[in-house]
Amino acid sequence: MSNSIFVEIEFISLIIFSFILPFSIYIYMMRRKAISRKLVLLFGVILITISGINVVLLQSLSEMAAKSSSLLDDKVFTSELSIALYLIPIIFAGIGVNILSHILISHLADAEKQFDREHR
Known about the structure:
This protein is mainly α. Helix content is 82%, strand content 0%. It has one domain (5-118). It contains five helices and no strands. The chain is elongated and about 75 Å long.
């Protein structure tokens, strides 16, 4: 076992799933002039999935930090600071759920308008 968990694949995966992938999704969505509902729905599902992966990685890293001899690992992943790390997946899950609810509400509004047009 290495001396620090900051060089482990789980930590690198956490960085990728916490920052690189979500911000890449946001940048892609913001640069598009037009975007389909299916793609927006997919992005929402991906954000929720990323949140779940982040939670699993954080739990794994906290277990590894408890077994590690490094004090910095303990301070980051097994102390009160670790609660702050869980805010990242909570935020992304919230945004993903908000995106999904936006798509659902938009679809239902369109379906109601279509129903009203057909049943006049």
